[in-house]
Every structure is written in C-alpha cells, then in structure tokens.
Amino acid sequence: MRLGDCKNAAPHVDNLDAAMKFDMWQTQHMQQLVKELDVLDQSLSRYDLDYRDRAALSGKQAQIKKRLIKGRRTLGDKLLLAPPPIGGEWLPKSAVYALVDLIVVVFGRPKGLFMECGNRIQSGMRIIQGC
User: Fold this and answer.
1) What are the residue boundaries of the structural domains of the chain, listed by start?
2) Contact in structure between 127 and 97 (CB atoms under 8 Å)
3) Which residue, of 27, 72, 81, 102, has the fewest CB within 10 Å?
4) Who has greater pLDDT, 108 or 4?
C-alpha cells in the first residue's frame, strides 16, 4: 500500500472506528437500561410498597421502557455506515467489528501503536471466535 493510499484511507478508518465504538456504547447503554428495568420490576413486586413510591417507580419504569423501545428500533443488528447496497445484504455487525479492529491494526502499526494494535488484534480474534 502506498503512503498516499494510507493517508486517503485513514479518515475512513477513523470514521469506521468511531461508528463502531459509538454502537458498542449504545449496546452497553441498552444493557444497563435492561438491568435498571429488572431492579424496578423487583421493587414493584413488593407488596409493602406505599402508593407514592409505587407511582414514582411505575413512572420511572414506563420511562425506561420507552427509551428501550426507541433504542432497539435504532440499534438493530446492523451497523449503518452507508446507504444499503443494491442487493440489500449487509455484513453482520460482528464481522464489521472484527474488520474494523484489524484495519485499525494495519493503520496503527506503522505509527508505533503496538499496545493498541495488540489489544485490537485480540478483540478481533475474540469476535471471530465468538467469545
């Protein structure tokens, strides 16, 4: 690969990496909301809860459910980086994650980012192996 090719591709790799990290953050946020909802459900199942506390917890429960529904609609299992291809077939998100990890390694190694490259290789391998 020529130096000019690397310089032209670097912003695209950065965009892919940023999109992947944002998607991972969103997924973790959704998982946290599910945990919060579970705690609320357990609290609401208590029979000794007074009316005001039950009403407050129910309101919070409805709010979290609404955020989860909205998040699941936008999250899906595809990482939308561009308009859909003509055939409509996308790579699975895990394949994109592995590819981005390994592409970041290709661009990071010449910069001497060996620790980051090692972490990204391990991350890509875990994704490929399904761990």
Assistant:
1) 3-129
2) yes
3) 72
4) 108
Cite the DSSP H helix spans in 45-113. 51-75, 93-108
Among residues 129, 92, 18, which one has the least CA distance to residue 121? 129
DSSP structural state of residue 121 = H
**CA 72/CA 56 separation, integer angstroms:** 24
Task: Give the global pTM.
Answer: 0.62
Between CA 99 and CA 107 the distance in angstroms is 12
CB-based burial label for 104 (10 Å; 0-12, 13-18, 19+): buried
List the one residue out of 82, 79, 108 whose CA is nearest residue 96. Answer: 79
What secondary structure letter does DSSP report for 67?
H
